[in-house]
Design brief:
single chain; about 350 residues; alpha/beta; 11 helices; about 65% helix; about 10% strand; globular
Length: about 350
């Protein structure tokens, strides 16, 4: 019997491998510079606060010209419309984006072309909020020629989608901004606590920056795990999780991603409040959003692996503990599902 199982698994593995190769070929053919027929040219959304010289410099950073893109402007009024707050002042709108619609299933990809000027938000940190807002299958390039925190870039993405006839739900967009703010706050708290605990590791400044990137990627993955667990629980129970359920899901996700020792009670409360909003906002936990989360999850895990490989022994311990925890919780969750499945059979 075991031998037959191995044969079956081997066959499945070969089928999946062939499928992946086929998918790679399709993506290669789709990336040949052809214009996406749903949108036409990529959409460039410039911050309204840029003067002409800054606008030209921004376009140069993004590698575009007026003929190669559709031109739009993100205003202070757009910020208020999509995020639900702000003064409406155009002068604060300084970051810009180029958005390209991708084929279904491609997922969300974000590239910050001026990381020295986007001071608080990483490329990975944009991805969860974009999925929360209902953005799917898009490549986003972010740039600023002046130092900015980076939050208003989301407004540019929403403006790009709506200017091409696609609807952005204001409630989801506002939750996405709450998520970005929460992620920024908690990740900084995690980084500070982790740096305190790793002072005896003798890391250089550049190594500390890489470690910080790994911690932020782990928090991004924590949010993915929280959403997926809430979605699965909602599907099974056909009702919302209780606050106690949410607290357990949040704490388990932090443990799974090796962050429990770096978060404060206040951090946990912020994540619990955010998680409760996930399950009360239409669309955030639907199947399409979960599919998009699966795509960005691979990016977060790739970031952790890449950075860990660059950090030698310290990176080995970081990645090793993370992999151990993920294996433990995956096995535990499977045992729980098997148990309840046995009760219903």
């Amino acid at each position: 019997m075991k031998f037959h199982k191995y044969i079956l698994l081997a066959g499945i593995g070969l089928s999946l491998g062939a499928g992946l190769l086929g998918t790679s070929r399709v993506h290669a053919e789709a990336d040949d510079g052809a214009i996406n027929e749903r949108w036409g040219k990529p959409t460039f959304v410039a911050g309204a606060g840029l003067n002409q010289q800054q606008l030209n410099e921004t376009m140069d950073k993004l590698g575009i010209n007026q003929d190669s893109v559709k031109m739009e402007t993100a205003t202070g009024a757009d910020l208020v419309k999509y995020l639900g707050y702000g003064s409406g002042d155009d002068s604060v709108m300084l970051s810009s984006v180029v958005v390209n619609r991708e084929d279904q299933g491609k997922g969300i990809n974000v590239n910050i072309l001026t990381p020295q000027n986007i001071t608080q938000i990483t490329a990975d940190q944009y991805k969860n909020p974009l999925v929360t807002a209902g953005i799917t299958d898009a490549t986003v390039k972010v740039a600023s020629v002046v130092k900015v925190t980076g939050e208003s870039a989301l407004t540019g993405v929403y403006k790009a989608f709506e200017s091409n006839g696609e609807t952005v739900d204001p409630e989801r967009a506002q939750l996405a901004q709450t998520e970005l703010d929460t992620t920024s706050d908690v990740s900084q708290s995690v980084v500070n606590k982790a740096n305190e605990q790793s002072q005896n590791q003798n890391l250089s400044d550049s190594e500390k920056e890489k470690a910080d990137e790994a911690y932020k990627a782990q928090l991004n993955q924590t949010l993915v795990d929280i959403k997926k667990e809430l979605a699965e629980l909602k599907e099974k129970q056909s009702e919302l999780a209780t606050k106690e359920d949410v607290e357990k899901i949040v704490n388990d996700a932090l443990e799974k991603n090796n962050l429990s020792q770096y978060v404060t009670k206040d951090d946990i409360n912020k994540l619990v409040a955010l998680a409760q909003q996930y399950q009360t906002t239409d669309g955030v936990l639907d199947k399409e959003s979960i599919q998009q989360l699966d795509k960005i999850s691979d990016d977060f895990k790739g970031t952790v692996n890449k950075v860990s490989d660059q950090l030698g022994k310290f990176g080995d311990s970081l990645k090793g503990t993370l992999e151990d925890n993920q294996g433990f919780f995956a096995n535990l969750w499977q045992q729980i599902k098997d148990f309840f499945s046995g009760l219903t059979n």
